[in-house]
Amino acid sequence: MGRITLEGVAKRFGDVEVIPPLNLDIEDGEFVVFVGPSGCGKSTLLRLIAGLEDVSDGRILIDGKDATDESPAKRGLAMVFQSYALYPHMSVRKNIAFPMKMAGMDQAEQDRRIEAAAKALNLTNYLDRKPGQLSGGQRQRVAIGRAIVREPSAFLFDEPLSNLDAALRVGMRLEISELHNRLKTTMIYVTHDQVEAMTMADKIVVLHAGRIEQVGSPLELYLRPKNAFVAAFIGSPK
Ligand code: ADP
Ligand code: MG
Questions:
Q1: Strand partners for 24
Q2: With contact defined as beta carbons under 8 Å apart, do 160 and 82 qualify?
Q3: pLDDT, tens digit, for every residue of 162-206?
Q4: Parallel, antiparallel or unpaired: strands 4-13 and 16-26
Q5: How far apart (Å, rounded) are the C-alpha atoms in residues 107 and 10?
Q6: Could you say which DSSP state residue 113 is in?
Q7: Is the full-model pTM beyond 0.90?
Q8: What ipTM does this complex have?
């Protein structure tokens, strides 16, 4: 579970083609980073995969099944945003439980998943607090917890750490990498930060003006950038 294939996927807003047709294969369990400058189409591409935007052309396959016309809920993917989008009046426990409650899951199963997520994210002692009583890093962990309890086949992160200060960002990067090692679930992670891409990714997708410039491991991109844009962006010596 967690294999995602884009076939000729394109996106236009009115007359503007933000993403020309592209192909991409994401393997089950991979940590894939979409990296590129602001405005290059990273969020749009992620939202197409999530089903939050409709494709203008092409197909999206999830685990070999055509999901192009599936609703976001049916795709089995969980999105984590940079603005944590927590409910301020609800406790951490209720925030994490929210998607399960909406799905009508029975209470014992909800409790089991909340305990497991809280343990994985070091939130066990914070379950009765409100988001306003948490640090930025803790709030981001709650947002991740709310994604974990859905047991998605892939996590989609859109610049989840950009609201955090530099020191906290380093810690959260490690936490997310560790979570990936533990869960072994596909993760697609969007960032404009080359260091984040180079340190976290199994596979980096370099985007520029909606096009894929290169796909490869951090080492491949560093040693063999395909063009001057990739070399400059990744900061390799060529
Ligand atoms: P990134 O996440 O890499 O910063 P985006 O995917 O947000 O880039 O945006 C890519 C391009 O698409 C930008 O030029 C942006 O203005 C445009 N765009 C994004 N969403 C919309 C929209 N809903 N309507 C029109 N243009 C949009
Ligand atoms: Mg964006």
A1: 6
A2: yes
A3: 888 888 889 899 999 999 999 999 999 999 999 999 999 999 999
A4: antiparallel
A5: 41
A6: H
A7: yes
A8: 0.98
Distance CA 5, CA 190 (A): 17
Best substitution site from 17, 18, 19, 157 to test ligand 1's pocket, by max atoms within 8 Å of Cβ?
A: 18
Q: Which two tokens stand for residue 40?
A: 């290059």
Q: Is 168 exposed, middle or buried (0-12, 13-18, 19+ CB in 10 A)?
A: middle
Tell me the pairing of strands 31-35 and 186-191: parallel
The finding on whether 35 has its CB within 6 A of some atom of ligand 1 is no
Sorted by sequence, the CB contacts under 8 Å of residue 205 that are 6+ apart come out as 24, 32, 33, 34, 35, 212, 214, 215
Structure-token pair, residue 16: 């503007």
**CB neighbours of 147 closer than 8 A, spacing ≥ 6?**
78, 79, 80, 155
Residue 119 Cα to ligand 1 midpoint, Å, equals: 37
Beta strand 211-216 with 203-208 is antiparallel
| Separation of alpha carbons 37 and 40, rounded Å | 6
